[in-house]
Amino acid sequence: MSSSVKLEVLIPRSLCQIECAENLIVDDEGLASFFISWEKGIVSELKPLNTEDKKPKKILFPRFVETHSHLDKSFTWKEFPNFKSNYEEALSVNLEEHITRTTKKVLDRAERSLNLALKNGYRAIRSHIDTYEAQENDIWTELFNLQKKYSPNLKLQFVALAPLEFWDSSNGEKLAKKLSVHEGILGGVVVPPFNKKEIKCLLSRMLLLADKYRLEVDLHIDESTSEPGAGIKVLLETIERLNIKVPITCSHLSNILSLRDNEIINLGRKITEKDIKVIALPLTNFWLLNRNDKSTSLNRPVAPIKQLQKSLVDVSIGSDNVQDPWFSFGNYDPFYLMTCAMPMLQLSPWERLTLSSLFLAPSRLLKLSWDGLIKKGCPADFVIVDAEKWADIFSSNLTKKVFINGELYC
Ligand SMILES: [Zn+2]
Q1: Shared-domain flag, residues 34 and 91
Q2: What is the Å distance from ligand 1's center to 406 Cα?
Q3: Would the pTM of this model clear 0.85, i.e. be above it?
Q4: Which residues span the domain enclosing 379?
Q5: pLDDT tens figures, 43-61
Q6: Distance 128 CA to ligand 1 centre (A)
Q7: Is 229 exposed, middle or buried (0-12, 13-18, 19+ CB in 10 A)?
Q8: 279 and 398 assigned to the same domain
Q9: Structure confidence by residue, pLDDT tens digits, 140-195
């Protein structure tokens, strides 16, 4: 039986919607006092709390959405460490890991990650899965079984992350067909330096394959310190030439940061025009790129979120790798991501656009049935933390409760 719950909570003002907001008390940090109740997994009441002297001591968030992860290699750091902590070494160690990879190992890593993610408050995850010719055949069948197994509590979306050449092979086409049945996505890497002519040709074939099977594309693009915007420019030219409408996500888009602001804004306009979504991944970018053991530099390429948002690009912030050769830390914890990303990128939690990139844009990116806005009639899918200000979230040991379909999960 579903329980009925009544609570007094704070909710970030930009994450909720009510008809009558006249009596709503919103503090200086954008936290609004509410009375909320839910029944049978659905919010039945959401109304302003009018007790000025009695501020709630809990903050309620919608459950989180992770837009970019790598479940298949999480927690491999111990076996496959990367003490140089740069991009080149990460790639080289990653390829070593492939040699010992089995379907069972991938599933174990994925289950461990998903269980943590659920406990930490995620409701949906998009994960890239390394895809290559020598892979065990049953891996995708097993991954789709996993997707089904977790589906009552968590929506799992897979991106087959393959060399672009793979999408031009018969195995590539076979997999594309399989992915189309399970809302899968075609993935690849477009990182300079590269041969422009060759990349254009491979990208075209990949996009045409995606179009044929009505699939989305998610690219690791411009995750580099060199040739700012080389990848996105080739991509835009290719889409223009093919004149097709394939939904595209650009993960990373880091090196465009070193373009001039007006160039970023112009590029952003073109990205918006083509309805391309962007995922900023500050943790791996700050860790891997432009690393110099002898000098400390603040020069870290990361997607310029504010300029892109100014050009109306839908930008999400994601975590990327967890305890693997690409990133040594992390725990599928959205609060860890927020705690790191906000000061790194000078994003304030009381700004609407900051919370949009963490909650609403990710829900749109994964095309979830709930956009993450808390209102009457929305699902009671919440993370409630013992806190009354943002500092409590970022500075202390957080006590939290996760509700899934109105029921206490943990
Ligand atoms: Zn990634």
Answers
A1: no
A2: 32
A3: yes
A4: 4-62+371-408
A5: 999 999 987 678 999 999 9
A6: 7
A7: buried
A8: no
A9: 999 999 999 999 999 999 999 999 999 999 999 999 999 999 999 999 999 999 99
